[in-house]
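Please check this one:

***
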Amino acid sequence: MLIPKKVKHRKWHKGRARGKRLATTKTTIAFGSFGIKATTGAWITSRQIEAARRAMTRAIKRGGKIWIRVFPDKPVTSKGSEMPMGKGKGAVDHYVAVVRPGTVLFEMGGIDEALARQALTLASHKLPVKSKIISRDIG
């Protein structure tokens, strides 16, 4: 699974404008020919990214190439069950990637369109965001 090697601050705040703004970076295909673009915003965990990657890799039978465009660098904390209120912020539990609407999540190249669409559809079922499959405009 993807986790950062080192972080500047161990615990982060949640952030203020959750799900309100559109993506300004990673909005077009940069590496492959086909990709998954998020149409809604969410936090995607490193487990969900890994599950989508595995689904794509198995669908294309280790052919072609896959690029993961998001990285989970935001720590999410949680406290143990049946903990009383107070006593500070919990320990870091897992890491998430903050995805805004319009972000390209995965890209794929080196395979034909039908197989790519099938693999990307399988991957999109593993993610908590609504998404659409996009292709590079040649011309």
Observations:
- The chain is about 20% helix and 25% strand.
- The mean pLDDT is 93.
- Residues 46-59 form the longest helix (14 residues).
- The beta strands are 34-38, 42-45, 65-68, 74-78, 91-99, 104-109, 131-135.
